[in-house]
Specification:
Structural class: alpha+beta
Strand order of the largest sheet: 4-6-5-11-10
Radius of gyration: 36 Å
Distance between the termini: 32 Å
Number of strands: 13
Shape: elongated
C-alpha cells in the first residue's frame, strides 16, 4: 500500500510546474496583447489626466411625462458617445448618473466648447424634403467669365437651356428670384398638416395685406441664409437651423456621398419624425451591384407618411425628388426617390460597410424624446491631476514597502514567495487594466488607484493565511512537504471565504454607487479575483516546489520555518514510534 501512496504524492508534486507554466503563458499573452493594441499604459480618468466634465440633466418634452427611462437614457449615452468621438476625442467617457443625469468627461487637448455644443444638443431625427441644394461655399467657384454680370447672364442662359433635372438647376448660380420661387412653390405643395397650417396662416396674412403670392419675407430670409451659408466653417454649421421648429423650413449642411465635401440645403417642413423608424440595418447586396446599402422599416403611422412623401417626391425633378435624413440639424443622407414606396425602404449609394452601419445606427437610435439641460461644467487642470497621481503612487509605494518589510522581518525566506506573488499580481493587474481601457473604456481615476492600494493588503493577507497554516503543521511535528499539503485545504477555504466577502462588498458598491466611486469598486473587485488566481496558480505551486529544497525542508533559521523558532518539538514524532514497545516491556 505504501507504493501507491508514494506514486500519488509524486504525481501531486508534478502538477505545480504546470500551474506555473500556465500563469507564465497568461502573463506573456496579456503583455503581448498590450503591446499589439498600442496601449502600454492604463487609460487615465479625467481627475488624473485633466479635462472637462459636463453634467447634463434630462428633461421631458411638452406632453410627454414618462419619456425619461433607462432605455432612453442608455440610448442617449450611445449617441453622445458617437458625437464626442466624432470630434476626434479619443478616450472620452459618457455615462449615466442616477435616473436623469448624464456625465460627459472629455480629456485634455479637446475643444471643450465644441464638445459641449455637440453632446448637449437634443438628439432628434427628421425626414425633410429637399427644396434646393448647392456646394458648401457661400459663393460659387470663380469661372473664366471676366465679369460678374456677364457670368450671371451666361449662367441664367445655361440654366434655361439645361432644365433637365440636374443639380445645376438649383446651384447658387441660379438667380435668387428663381430659387425663391422654387422654394415657395415647394412649400405651397407640401401636404403635411403642420406645413398646411403654416401655409393657411400665411394665406390669411396675405389676404389681409393684399400681397401677391410671390416669395414671402420668410422665404427671402431663408434664401439669404442659404446664399451666405458657409458649410465648411464649423462655427457656421453649429449655428445653422438653431431654434427652427420641425414644422418650419430650414437650411442645413451635410457631407456629400464621398464624405469629404460639404453641401448645403434648403429643406421643407419635416414630413416624418425619426421616432417612426422601427428598424434600420446595414446589408450587403449579394444579388446585384449596389454593394452596401441600408434597409429601413417604419411603424404603422410612419409607413403611411413615408408612402405619401415618396409618392409626392417621385414626380419631382432633381433635387426636389430627394428627402434629407436630418439628425440634430445636419443632413446625414439625402437619397433620391424614383417611385412611391409602400413597403420597407432601401437606401443605396456609395456606401462603405462602415458608413452604412453608421447611417443605420443613426436611423435606429438617433431619435429620442429627450432634451438635456447643462447642469454643470467642471474643468480639471492636468497639473492637479498629475499631483494627485503622484500622491497616489507615493502612497501605494509606501504601503507596498511596509508590507514587504513586515514579510521579510517576520517570515524571512518565505517572504521571497510572497514578494514574487505580489509581483505577479501587480503585473496581471497592470496589463489587464491597460487592455480594459480600449476594450470597455475603463479609466484609472484616483479612487481606482486607492482600490489598487487597498488590494495590496488583501493579497498579502492571503499569503499570511497560507504561511500560518503551514507553520501550524510544522509546529505539530510534521516535515515541510506533508505540512504544505495538509495546510493547503484549510488555508484554501479561509482564503476563498475572505475573498468572496471582499468581492461581494465591491460588487454591491459598484451597483449602488455612480461616478468615480465605481472606479474604486471595480478595481477592488478585479484585484480580489486576481488574488484567487495568483494564490491558486502561483503561490501554492511555488510553495510546493520550494518545500523540496533543503533550505526550506531542513528548516534553516532564515527560511521562516525553523522548528525550534516556531516552538515545535521534533522528538515528539520519534516518541510516538517507540512509545508502544517501551510500554510493553514495562508491562
Amino acid at each position: 500500500m505504501a507504493a501507491p501512496k508514494k506514486g500519488r504524492r509524486q504525481g501531486a508534486q508534478g502538477r505545480p510546474g504546470r500551474s506555473l507554466v500556465f500563469i507564465l503563458i497568461a502573463l506573456v499573452a496579456l503583455t503581448g496583447g498590450m503591446f499589439l493594441s498600442g496601449h502600454t499604459t492604463p487609460r487615465l480618468g479625467i481627475d488624473l489626466a485633466g479635462g472637462t466634465s459636463i453634467t447634463l440633466e434630462a428633461k421631458n418634452e411638452p406632453g410627454q411625462k414618462n419619456a425619461i427611462n433607462s432605455t432612453n437614457m442608455n440610448t442617449a449615452v450611445d449617441i453622445m458617445n458617437r458625437r464626442v468621438n466624432g470630434l476626434g476625442v479619443s478616450e472620452a467617457e459618457v455615462q449615466t448618473q442616477g435616473d436623469r443625469n448624464i456625465i460627459v468627461n472629455i480629456p485634455k487637448g479637446t475643444n471643450s466648447q465644441q464638445a459641449r455644443d455637440q453632446v448637449g444638443t437634443t438628439a432628434q431625427l427628421y425626414f425633410r424634403p429637399v427644396l434646393t441644394m448647392a456646394g458648401g461655399k457661400p459663393t460659387p467657384e470663380p469661372s473664366s467669365t471676366p465679369s460678374g454680370t456677364d457670368k450671371g447672364k451666361d449662367k441664367d442662359k445655361k440654366d434655361d437651356a439645361d432644365k433637365s433635372g440636374k443639380d445645376k438647376a438649383t446651384s447658387p448660380s441660379a438667380t435668387p428670384t428663381s430659387q425663391g420661387r422654387a422654394v415657395t412653390d415647394a412649400l405651397k405643395a407640401d401636404p403635411t398638416p403642420s406645413a398646411s397650417d403654416k401655409a393657411k396662416d400665411k394665406g390669411e396674412d396675405k389676404k389681409k395685406d393684399g400681397s401677391s403670392p410671390s416669395p414671402s419675407a420668410d422665404t427671402k430670409k431663408l434664401q439669404e441664409q442659404f446664399t451666405k451659408l458657409d458649410c465648411t466653417d464649423p462655427k457656421a454649421r453649429a449655428a445653422v437651423g438653431e431654434g427652427v421648429k420641425p414644422s418650419d423650413p430650414t437650411v442645413a449642411c451635410g457631407l456629400d456621398s464621398s464624405g469629404k465635401n460639404w453641401e448645403k440645403f434648403i429643406l421643407g417642413p419635416a414630413e416624418i419624425n425619426g421616432k417612426e423608424v422601427k428598424k434600420a440595418e446595414a446589408v450587403y447586396d449579394t444579388t446585384g451591384s449596389r454593394g452596401w446599402m441600408v434597409t429601413m422599416s417604419f411603424k404603422d403611422k410612419g409607413q403611411k407618411q413615408f408612402a405619401d412623401i415618396t409618392g409626392k417626391l417621385a414626380s419631382q425633378q432633381p433635387p426636389q425628388n430627394q428627402f434629407a435624413i436630418v439628425m440634430d440639424r445636419e443632413v446625414v443622407s439625402a437619397p433620391s426617390v424614383s417611385q412611391r414606396l409602400n413597403s420597407d425602404a432601401e437606401i443605396s449609394g456609395s456606401f462603405t460597410q462602415e458608413s452604412a452601419k453608421d447611417l443605420a445606427n443613426m436611423l435606429s437610435y438617433g431619435a429620442l424624446p429627450l432634451t438635456f439641460k447643462e447642469a454643470s461644467v467642471q474643468t480639471v487642470s492636468p497639473a492637479l491631476g498629475g499631483e494627485q497621481l503622484r500622491a497616489g503612487l507615493i502612497a501605494g509605494a509606501i504601503g507596498l514597502a511596509l508590507v514587504i518589510l513586515y514579510l521579510v522581518v517576520y517570515y524571512r525566506g518565505l517572504s521571497l514567495i510572497a514578494i514574487a506573488s505580489l509581483g505577479v499580481s501587480a503585473a496581471l493587474t497592470y496589463t489587464i487594466m491597460t487592455l480594459l481601457g480600449p476594450t470597455i473604456h475603463f479609466a484609472l481615476n484616483l479612487p481606482a488607484v486607492c482600490g489598487a492600494i487597498v488590494a495590496i493588503g488583501i493579497t498579502a493577507d492571503s499569503f499570511i493565511v497560507f504561511f500560518e497554516r503551514v507553520r501550524d503543521e510544522v509546529r505539530e511535528g510534521r516535515t515541510l512537504r506533508p505540512a504544505v499539503e495538509r495546510a493547503w485545504p484549510r488555508a484554501r477555504r479561509t482564503i476563498l471565504v475572505s475573498d468572496f466577502v471582499s468581492f461581494l462588498a465591491a460588487a454591491v458598491l459598484f451597483i449602488v454607487t455612480v461616478g468615480k466611486v465605481q472606479g474604486f469598486a471595480f478595481t477592488l473587485g478585479l484585484t480580489t479575483l486576481l488574488d484567487v488566481v495568483v494564490v491558486f496558480f502561483f503561490t501554492k505551486p511555488l510553495m510546493t516546489i520550494m518545500a523540496r529544497k533543503k533550505f526550506f525542508a531542513n528548516g534553516h533559521k532564515w527560511s521562516g520555518l525553523d522548528p525550534k523558532r516556531l516552538g515545535a518539538k521534533p522528538p515528539l514524532r520519534r516518541s510516538r514510534r517507540v512509545s508502544a514497545p517501551v510500554d510493553t516491556k514495562e508491562a
